[in-house]
Amino acid sequence: MLSRLALSERLSTGFECFGAETAINGVAALCDPLGGLYMPDLSLLVVSDLHLEKGAAFARRGMMLPPYDTIATLKILASLITRYDPKIVVSLGDNFHDRKGSEHLPLPLRDIIKEMARGREWIWINGNHDPDGTVDLPGSSVDEMFYANLVFRHEPKLKGVDTKGEIAGHLHPSATVRRRDKTVRRPCFATDGARLLMPAFGVMSGGLDLRHKAMRGLFDHADLIAHLMGRDRIYSVRFGSLLG
After folding, report:
1. Could you tell me if 125 and 91 are in contact, meaning their C-beta atoms sit under 8 angstroms apart?
2. What does the alpha-carbon distance between residue 51 and residue 33 come to, in Å, rounded to a whole number?
3. At how many degrees (to 10) do helices 69-84 and 4-11 cross?
4. Verdict on whether the full-model pTM lies above 0.90
């Protein structure tokens, strides 16, 4: 199976990949196999849980991991931005893996972000890993953003007047299906039309199954669809057909 990084590189050669159309609180959106959500009417691209500098964060704690996660994640993000050329980019929190990641981001990687953000509005939503915002990066840092009948935040809320139209991250949703006599578990976009949970975008991020207790109360299961990220397309599966 192609990795997202390999897929992003193939897109530059004209290779086609296919997303899935959906709508959140009446706003049209496209779930992309690279892990972003694009809203054409708003020219807005959403990503979540980049967890940049995760390898560096582990190294600061004495656990050495390959230090290539940030550049790989940024390459995939750059491919998405080239694909859609959005006017607005929203990153839904846990943009960096810890409070020090933004401050200590190496200059060449910082320059990549600055180039991607050139000519665009860039919004960093604060997450539980990085609640203090970013350091010396373009854009603005906020706890949540209300825009066009939608609310963008890191952690989904269980109930309240501002949960309809919610687009959130944090839980890294994934789903399991049976295919050709074997089970396949993939990150997914999860939506019942009222709200949407984003998959984690960072290349070193895991996933939490949609049937996990942490997901309880977030969706109307009768309308819930998991848009699973395949190697070059999105596979849309109703909640009742998922395993787990």
Report:
1. yes
2. 18
3. 40
4. yes
